[in-house]
Amino acid sequence: MGRSPCCDKVGLKKGPWTPEEDQKLLAYIEEHGHGSWRALPTKAGLQRCGKSCRLRWTNYLRPDIKRGKFSLQEEQTIIQLHALLGNRWSAIATHLPKRTDNEIKNYWNTHLKKRLAKMGIDPVTHKPKNDALMSSDGQSKNAANLSHMAQWESARLEAEARLVRQSKLRSNSLQNPLRSPELVPTSSPINKPVAGPPRCLDILKAWNGTWTKPNESDSGGVGVGISLTVAGIGNDLESPTSTLSFSENAPPIATTGIGESSTTFIEFVGNSGSCEEGGVPKEESEEDWKGFGSSIHLHEYKDGMDSTISMSFTSGLHDMPISMESAWAPPESLRSSNEHVPTGNFVERFTDLLLNNSGGRSFSEGGGESDDGSGSGSDYYEDNKNYWNSILNLVNSSPSDSPLF
DNA sequence: AATTCCTACAACCGCTTCTCG
DNA sequence: CCGAGAAGCGGTTGTAGGAAT
């Protein structure tokens, strides 16, 4: 089929844009919208390829772009989302209004990646570098498990969201040129707030949905159930209903039904291990998790002021129970404008970790260890735990008007 | 003051995905 | 359903400007 050449046409300019070119492009788009990018350069009197024009517009000239230093909150968001989504910069950018994927990508590569590395965290896996210590540990396994589940679910739901978005789009074609999908690429993160109401179809939002106790008895030690119900998906969206079940004992199994209900229900079910006192029969799952006890409870009491997350991990190999109970993020109202929140808040903790360790201090601040991330055991675990909790926290505290959804 | 090195970021490249006839 | 073109996306490169020597 042969790909059409882009910038290799003779006479087309490459390299940095001049103010005059910027002006031409701006003026043209403001007046006509971009329409077809390929046709734009000729119409606008630019000696550039359409692709170059598009990039210049989306990454630099667009009026709704925030430039300059990244705030602390933005940094946190990038790191945490990167842990969940990987190098999917456009997806990450949807969580950072006014920032472009390119800018975020650059910032990650030049700043954050190095900072994490300095802290002894592998910027790719977001796990401590000397994973040897952690590899035999239940916590790391659970953290990785959470991550994998999240990524898997993220991919699936995003595909679903895309379908919905597309069908929405088709019925949305006649708009102001400056707001139309023609001018404003629908997948462009920056413009999503303009494009329409929030959509709650990604794992992040899913996790931001209503956490409910699947069964009271679960918290009694029978097993761990994490269930969440995403309400509002039916908000005039053509989203199919999805029901998912995850088990720690088996690969995630998803059943997606397109049907009557407009509610998405996702359930993670894991087997609680030896960490649960009053230990309950582990049944067949014991084989897979021999040596590991795991327990994750994530509860949000929507109407109450305090939500909690509690996780318990027991490493059978090291016979070292790790359990934590931490304050979940406070209600949205308290979390706006980057306010400090009561002690035990992960965002604050995470922030401290980042900032305090950016000067070459180790990931384990309490242990006062080397820069290679090998702190004293308990602090090491503690920090790693908080790291992942902060990610979950971000997910949970994602603003309801997040452009991603 | 000159040169080298480093950092930051804009822009490019090429592959993938989407759209439409 | 298929193919071509358009757009999106992520990795990589080029370059300007500042810091270090």
Automatic annotation (TrEMBL):
Annotated segments matching region Disordered: 170-195, 358-379
Name one cellular component (GO) term: nucleus
Among the GO biological process terms of this entry, one is: regulation of cutin biosynthetic process
Q: In this protein, which residues make up the domain named HTH myb-type?
A: 9-61, 62-116
The segment(s) forming the Myb-like domain are 9-61, 62-112
Ordered alphabetically, the record's keywords are: Developmental protein, DNA-binding, Nucleus, Repeat, Transcription, Transcription regulation
Give an example GO molecular function: DNA binding
Record's Gene3D superfamilies? Answer: Homeodomain-like (1.10.10.60)
Residues that span the membrane, as ranges = none
**PANTHER family membership:** MYB FAMILY TRANSCRIPTION FACTOR (PTHR10641), TRANSCRIPTION FACTOR MYB16 (PTHR10641:SF586)
Stated name of the protein: Uncharacterized protein
Q: Which organism is it from?
A: Ilex paraguariensis (yerba mate)
Taxonomic lineage of this organism? Answer: Eukaryota, Viridiplantae, Streptophyta, Embryophyta, Tracheophyta
